[in-house]
Design a protein that fits this description.
Number of strands: 0
Distance between the termini: 27 Å
CATH class: Mainly Alpha
Radius of gyration: 21 Å
Strand content: under 5%
CATH architecture: Up-down Bundle
Number of domains: 1
Largest sheet: none
């Protein structure tokens, strides 16, 4: 594997760590913050949904902007700036005692977490089409490892009283150890990027793109970074369809992420640490699939066929999960869901990067991640409402319907592309 990709993989790992680490503690953390702020305690779940959605909302807004900025000014400088922001956000996490202050820290995390599009574009810059799927799959495995350790660290670190370690001071909140841990990891990553990551785009490429973008800006108006929708990709029906498939797939899976901790508590009486272990188990399966199984299947099947296989597994898992009893059956169903996500997600990402032009890799992958972020904005709200208002099975049924729609779109893309492998 190319050594220069390690800092990129660490960026991906820390993004998922920052997103996943809150999952097992969201119930208890929200209760503490809401109580400290004097808000209505009858809406704990709603406030938790806002915390989860805010991260993804700002990731949605800034993913294409950071991707476009990296096209114009280079991947490395954008990664440095975004990781500095991550350090700040995690330090704010550690000292947050009010709901609003913690919400601001999650917003900053969402903005800096938008650098996933830059990481994907860096991989596309330094790999050829033959190897790109392999490295995208490996990135997915790193993503899965972050998903393993995020909830795991969240569950374990929730038992650490960092104020006691620092002499009994009350600067840090109940879950301050989590913020300090992720801030230290981000600082290490920042040092690695500064001293160990070469720029993947040449000066002539960036200058040429700035020049062409300036011409379009003068002709049509608007800032060259923020005018990210004025690109050729929106005229490519294949890319647009892949955006839609990715959004549907992510929305369905994120519905489950949003309510699973509540469902595990209500159905199986899991506490914070046990919830973290369960999410870690799901992350292990994701990592094994994307780091090993996916690469084996890639030799036999096309990317579109793998997308079909993965989405079919998701469809099966979504409908099985609400009727999976006892816990062993629920664990087996999670394996089916993790397999489906582990196969379909890197396939869609790779296909999108292949369809995108070289000049617009950053903004195209940024837009793809924006659709993923949009799903994480919508899912915490719709999933918790469906769970509270209807039944624990409602979010799973909605996800199953979404997966079925995704299957139809994939089949349409296979037919138009002449994919028979």
């Amino acid at each position: 594997m190319q050594k220069k990709l390690w800092p990129i993989f660490i960026v991906v790992f820390l993004n998922m760590l920052g997103f996943g680490i809150i999952i097992p503690v969201i119930r208890d953390l929200t209760e503490i913050l809401v109580n400290n702020s004097g808000y209505n305690p009858n809406y704990y779940a709603f406030y938790a949904g806002i915390l989860m959605a805010s991260y993804s909302f700002f990731q949605l807004i800034f993913s294409p902007m950071l991707g476009r900025a990296s096209d114009l000014y280079g991947r490395r400088i954008i990664l440095v700036i975004s990781v500095v922001g991550s350090v700040i956000s995690y330090l704010m996490w550690a000292v947050s005692h009010s709901y609003v202050f913690f919400l601001i820290s999650r917003i900053i995390s969402g903005v800096t977490g938008a650098n996933l599009s830059v990481a994907q574009s860096y991989i596309a810059d330094v790999t050829n089409e033959k190897d790109r799927a392999k490295y995208m799959g490996l990135m997915g495995a790193i993503f899965g490892i972050g998903f393993i350790l995020g909830p795991f660290f969240g569950g374990v670190a929730s038992t650490i009283d960092i104020n006691h370690i620092f002499g009994g001071v009350t600067i840090f909140n109940r879950f301050g150890a989590i913020g300090i841990l992720t801030a230290v990891l981000s600082i290490i990553n920042l040092i690695w990027i500064i001293f160990g990551l070469p720029e993947s785009r040449t000066r002539s490429e960036m200058a040429g793109e700035r020049g062409s973008t300036t011409g379009r800006r003068e002709e049509k108006g608007g800032h060259r970074v923020f005018k990210f929708m004025n690109v050729r990709m929106i005229k490519n029906k294949h890319i647009v369809r892949l955006f839609l498939i990715y959004f549907i797939m992510q929305l369905g899976f994120n519905h489950i992420e949003a309510i699973l901790s509540w469902d595990l508590k209500d159905r199986f009486n899991m506490d914070t640490r046990e919830t973290g272990y369960f999410f870690a188990f799901m992350g292990i399966i994701l990592a094994l699939v994307q780091g090993g199984v996916y690469r084996i299947l890639l030799k036999k099947y096309s990317l579109l066929k793998l997308s079909l296989i993965g989405t079919t597994s998701l469809l099966l898992g979504f409908f099985l999960m609400p009727i999976s009893y006892p816990l062993l059956m629920a664990s087996l169903t999670i394996v089916v869901l993790a397999f489906g996500m582990g196969i379909s997600s890197p396939s869609i990402m790779t296909l999108t990067s292949i369809y995108a032009s070289k000049e617009e890799q950053g903004v195209t992958m940024g837009m793809l991640q924006s659709f993923g972020s949009l799903s994480r904005v919508i899912a915490p709200i719709t999933a918790t409402l469906a769970y509270d208002v209807f039944a624990h099975s409602a979010p799973y049924i909605i996800s199953g319907v979404l997966a079925f729609i995704g299957l139809i779109l994939i089949q349409k893309e296979r037919k138009e592309s002449g994919d028979t492998k």
